[in-house]
Amino acid sequence: MLNETPVIPSDSVIKPVIHYKDDFSGQHFFMVLFPTGFTKSGEVRNQLVNFTEQNYKLEKLEVNQMVFDSERQMLLVKQFEKKEAGALFVSRLKTYRELQSSFPPGTLLFLVTPENFTSFYSLKDVEGYNKYHLEKY
Q1: 83 FRET partner, CA 20 to 30 A, in 2, 9, 34, 61?
Q2: Does residue 134 carry a pLDDT above 50?
Q3: Residue 10: predicted pLDDT
Q4: Alpha carbon of 64 to those of 18, 45, 73, 85, 111: distances in Å?
Q5: Contact (CB, 8 A) for 87 and 111
Q6: Which ranges of 23-113 does DSSP label H, i.e. alpha helix?
Q7: Is this model's pTM higher than 0.85 or not?
Q8: pLDDT at residue 5, rounded to an integer
């Protein structure tokens, strides 16, 4: 009995602990996560595209929409040369009331480095990255 392997119920999910990298000197992406059932996702994407075109014409930012998981969709804006440029984008975005009011409840906004994005996206670590983002950004 002492050396038996513990039985883990088949319906439990063990998530690995992710240690995100604290290198903020390089490029960053901006992410918007919102519920999949939100019917106006195309409108939100269009408003975000309009915002970037009006305010960041020279930076030639790219806005992509994708399915994140069965519960959420993602808008990804890339890319900013540094954390500070991404933070300025978020600050300006928060003053754009038309877009802010169109986000559904449960929407999350994040800045992320490309390396951390790879870990976040592949493991769908919303809770862990949210905690990390609140501490580091």
Answers
A1: 34
A2: yes
A3: 47
A4: 25, 8, 11, 19, 15
A5: yes
A6: 41-55, 83-93, 97-102
A7: no
A8: 43
